[in-house]
Write the structure tokens for this entry.
Amino acid sequence: MSDVNGTWLGTYWQNGNPTRFEVVLVQSGNSLSGRVLDDGYLGEAKLSGEVVGRRISFLKRYFTSSPDAIEYVGTISEDEDYIQGQWTIGIYDYGPWEARRSGESLSLEAKNKVEKKVPFTVSS
């Protein structure tokens, strides 16, 4: 069974539009719980689900904005650092999602993107 405990940074796509998110997963045996913070107007959500082998599945429920639960299903990579899958809301909305473990490489990637967008200048 895969170990997904920890903080992950990810993206889900809805109608072709990406939304970044951070999720903290807490795994106990096959059971899974956690919190998600979207980088969009939907905000914070809780999740509950399970991990079986390299398969992960959970329901995400927003605290304030959306009454519908979103089902996430995915496959965990062999090195347990990457997950990809599909999310669905009922039968009417769905899309892909992916997440990577939060770590130095992601922090460095974000820092490099910020530096490229916001040039640093020194005035004398």
